[in-house]
Amino acid sequence: MERLIEIKNLKKYFSAGGGCVKAVDNVSFYINEGETLGLVGESGCGKTTCGRTLLGIYEPTGGEVYYRGKRIDNVKGKQRQNLKKDMQIIFQDPYASLNPRMTVGDIIAEGIDIFNICSGDDRRKRIEELLHLVGLNKSHINRFPHEFSGGQRQRIGIARALAIDPKFIVCDEPISALDVSIQAQIINLLIKLQKELKLTYLFIAHDLSMIRHISDRVGVMYLGRIVEIGEANEIYDNPKHPYTKILMSAIPLPDPDRKLNVSKIKGEIPSPLNPPSGCTFRTRCPMAQEICAQKAPDLVELKPGYACACHFVKPGKNE
Ligand SMILES: Nc1ncnc2c1ncn2[C@@H]1O[C@H](COP(=O)(O)OP(=O)(O)OP(=O)(O)O)[C@@H](O)[C@H]1O
Ligand SMILES: [Mg+2]
User: Fold this and answer.
1) Spans of the chain below 50 pLDDT
2) Rounded to two decimals, what is the model's pTM?
3) Which residues pair with 204 in a beta bridge?
4) CATH 3.40.50.300 fits 3-308, yes or no
C-alpha cells in the first residue's frame, strides 16, 4: 500500500507569552492511501497545529513532509498551489467556518473558482452534484448558512472540501461542535465518501470514543508529541502507554468490570510554556519514577507500525 502522506520529525514552535510553545515537537507518522489516521489528545496538545503544518498552512519550524514519497514542505509558488488541490481541510466549527454573507453555492465553489475549474452551467451542475453527494438538496444552492442546522452546515463544509477532488483531507474535529445525535451521521457520511472517492484522512478528535469506527490507525498526542501510535484495534484493545490507558478510561464502557480497573487522570495539563523535564506526562502519570524526570522517553517501535514512548513499555514486554 502506498504511503500517501508522511511526516518526519515535524516541529512547529510558536513564540508566546515571552517564551516558546513547542506545539508540535518531533512528530513522525505516515498515512497509507485510502486509510484514516486518527489523532487524539486533550485540548492544546497540538493536533490542529500538526494538521495545519502538515498542509503547509503553517510553515514548519523543522522536519519534513512527504506526499506520495515527494518532499513538499519546501515547495513554493505554483507547485504549492497545485498541491492544495489534493489536500483539503474540514474545520471543527461549522458555524464559524462558513461565510454568512455567501450563498451555499458560492461557499462550495470556492476552490472551483480559485482554480478556475469550470464556470456557468458546469459550475452549477458540479455544485448540485456535490450537494447531492453530501446528502443536501440541490435547491439549497442559493440559500445562506444561517438557514441550516449544525449538521447541515458541516455537510456544506464537507462539500466545499470535496469540490476540487482532493486526495487527502484533514478532518479537524468535524463533529465535536455537533449534537451527539448528529455526530454519527456525519461520521458515516465521511466513511461513505472515503470509500466512494478513495480519500485518505487525518481525523483529529479530543477523545478516543468516536474515532474507533473511522480509524485504521490511531496516534495519541500529549504536549506536542506522539506518545503511542499503531493499529486502531490494538490501541483500543491493548493500550500500552499510561496516558492512552487513561484516555481509554474516559470512554463509557458497557462492561462494568473494565471500569473498575482504570485509573483516573490526575491534575491539569502542564503549561506548554514550561513543560516538565523528561517525560512531559510524568506529573500526571500513575507509574512515574525518577528516570521519568531525568530523561524523555524515545518513541520506540514495539513492532512494525506500532510505537510507544514510555520508559516502562519495551519491545517484547507488556504484550
Ligand atoms: N498561532 C498560535 N500562536 C501561538 N500559540 C499557538 C498558536 N496556535 C496554537 N498555539 C499553541 O500551541 C499549542 C497547541 O495548540 P493546538 O490548537 O494545535 O492544539 P489542539 O490539540 O488542536 O487543541 P484543541 O483540541 O483545543 O483544538 C497550544 O498550547 C496553543 O496555545
Ligand atoms: Mg484543535
Assistant:
1) 255-263, 318
2) 0.92
3) 39, 172
4) yes
